[in-house]
Amino acid sequence: MKNIGFIGIGTMGLPMASNIINKGYSLSFYDPFVNSDSVNALKNLGGIEKTSLSELSQNVEIIITMLPNGDNVKEVCFGKNGLIYQDNKNFVLIDMSTINPNDSIFINEELNKNNIIMFDAPVARLVQNAIDGTLLIMVGGNKDEFKNIKNLLETMGSDIVYCGENGSGSKMKIINNYMSIALNILTAETLNLADKSGIDKKMAIELMLTTAAGKGHMNLTYPAKVFKDDVSPGFKNNLALKDLRLAIQFASEQNLDLNMGKAAEKIYDDASKKQYGDLDWTSMFNFIKNK
Ligand code: NAD
Question: What's the pLDDT score for residue 200?
């Protein structure tokens, strides 16, 4: 079993490091800012506390960073007494923090200059998944080397997806989060519209789980139409725009402002003025692409 160094034992890092230890790995950790409860919890499991990056980097084959942002990762790697200045550079770095993909690419290039292999491997899902070892982990880096870290990642996650070259894990994480975070507001607006107009929310949810609203366009409409290069009208954009305006007007009568709806209305309106009005609504994928 490889010796693991873990940097950043916060909300996510602590349960992730705990799972690595519980699966039989030897783990050293470094986090000078975390509270003593977390330090003691990991020590009780068998984790070895280190008080500097120099100490942590000795005798480890893999170092994992789980830090708040890209500047933290750069600081740990390249700051004063950072990892590249230590004697042992014979380790693989797996950065599991959520950071800008350009930072992931930059950090990888700089580490490569010191012969250090790096992966970006940010995680999705919740703290409970970190505790249960059921995170989704999105990995960017060399595909051959990926085989050597997969077992370790499986101690923390139930779904380990290789996404492509360095930076691809961070890109995929941001792409996924964009959709789920924006959909959260759309979902909140939609269910408030149901509530305010006297529609039973439970019934509305059950009903919408059978339509594109709840099943999602990736599941339902795009594969059948635009992904097959077919934008002949099934449901026309002009009709979608009419229905969207009905919803916005109806909501305003209930004193509810549909901000996501208004943003979408502007885009449908632009598309309609550029000969998309009579095309299938999935053609909006092409409109956005060609804008
Ligand atoms: P956190 O703030 O709870 O933990 C970060 C830890 O890093 C802290 O304990 C802090 O002391 C430590 N740290 C900061 N700078 C350090 C340094 N220079 N050296 C050593 N340790 C240092 O954050 P978190 O919630 O665990 O999130 C970590 C990353 O995972 C973030 O990028 C976050 O966006 C991402 N993420 C979080 C969640 C979540 O639900 N919390 C879910 C998915 C992804």
Answer: 97
